[in-house]
Automatic annotation (TrEMBL):
It is an enzyme of class 2 (transferase). Its EC number is 2.1.3.2. Belongs to the aspartate/ornithine carbamoyltransferase superfamily. ATCase family. PROSITE patterns: CARBAMOYLTRANSFERASE. The keyword Transferase applies. This is Aspartate carbamoyltransferase. Carbamoyl phosphate binds at R60, T61, R110, H138, Q141, G266, P267. It comes from Caldovatus aquaticus. It catalyses: carbamoyl phosphate + L-aspartate = N-carbamoyl-L-aspartate + phosphate + H(+). Heterododecamer (2C3:3R2) of six catalytic PyrB chains organized as two trimers (C3), and six regulatory PyrI chains organized as three dimers (R2). GO terms for molecular function: aspartate carbamoyltransferase activity.
Length: 313
């Protein structure tokens, strides 16, 4: 198969050309099938070292990169800040020098500062994958969301996708907006004015401040977590009031198409941005499938980046 991805790192979706997005999704689809068959492909990354370097908490992303790396045969090491020298004040660049000395091949980085993975990418010999940087991007999340949508709806083009809630602090929203608009979906952002970034209109999305009009005839409803840890001041009223206006319940979901799917990147605040009855409804919610597709997408990303390493060797 020809290379579906020509770059050395995966730092962002912005600027990634549609054929490469489609190529990565196709490859991830084949990994999804492989995973369901229970088979592995342990030769691909045999002898490669994958380091998961997480400066922020994570459950799904870190675990699924670990699983993806192991399924492809890599030696996987998890470094979390609490147990590394970073908590003793080592700078990002010293960390990079250490990783180079260890001959790390694939480096998965999550950091609270936007741009930190890009900085590391300039200093390390490894291929760097951004696993979420500040409020900037979370590219593998957007890819796994797109794969889930494509499996359920058969396409991305022409679909109406409503991304709802705390858009301002969400790297998931930013990566999804870039990916979905590049693939010609119609993207809406829905939320209170305090949680919609001023740049939204420039990103080619429609802005709504009311759930019922924002969800009208949507094919996909993507809910986001209220990211209180990134809020400098009280941008929202109480959680209960937020749920009343912006939380997804059966009544608000009724505005979307009858077969609309419901997504959430996790972790969920049940009863704040989403009602448990919706999150757990197998007829509407694809949240479990998103997690499953996360492993497949990360296998595809590790696959293409390791082939690039061989080319550049
Ligand atoms: N897990 C996602 C992220 O790391 C979404 C979230 O935290 O709300 O951005």
């Amino acid at each position: 198969m020809s290379l579906p991805y020509p770059h050395r790192h995966l730092l962002a979706i912005e600027g990634l050309e549609p054929p490469y997005i489609a190529g990565l999704l196709d490859l991830a689809e084949s990994y999804a099938l492989l995973n369901r068959s229970g088979k592995t492909q342990r030769d691909l990354l045999r002898g490669r070292t994958l380091i998961n370097l997480f400066f922020e908490d994570s459950t799904r992303t870190r675990t699924s990169f670990e699983l993806a790396g192991k399924r492809l045969g890599a030696d996987v090491i998890n470094m979390s800040v609490a147990t590394s020298s970073v908590s003793k004040g080592e700078t990002l660049l010293d960390t990079a020098a250490t990783l180079n000395a260890m001959n790390c091949d694939l480096l998965v980085v999550r950091h609270g500062q936007s741009g930190a993975p890009a900085l590391l990418a300039q200093k390390v010999s490894a291929a760097v994958i951004n696993a979420g940087d500040g409020t900037h991007e979370h590219p593998t999340q957007a890819l796994l969301d797109a794969l889930t949508i494509r499996r359920r709806k058969g396409r991305l083009e022409g679909l109406t996708v409503a991304i709802c809630g705390d858009i301002l602090h969400s790297r998931v929203a930013r990566s999804n907006i870039h990916l979905l608009t590049a693939m010609n979906a119609r993207v809406r952002v829905v939320g209170p004015p305090t949680l919609i970034p001023a740049e939204a209109a420039r990103l080619g999305v429609e802005v709504f401040h009311d759930m019922r009009s924002g969800l009208r005839d949507a094919d996909v409803v993507m809910m986001l977590r209220l990211q209180r840890e990134r809020m400098a001041a009280g941008l929202v009223p109480s959680s209960r009031e937020f749920f009343r206006f912006w939380g997804l319940d059966a009544e608000k979901l009724a505005a979307a198409k009858p077969d609309a799917i419901v997504m959430h990147p996790g972790p969920m605040n049940r009863g704040v941005e989403i009602d448990s009855a919706i999150a757990d409804d197998p007829a509407r919610s694809v949240i479990g499938e998103q997690v499953e597709m996360g492993v497949a997408v990360r296998m595809a990303v590790l696959d293409v980046l390791s082939r690039q390493l061989l080319r550049n060797a």
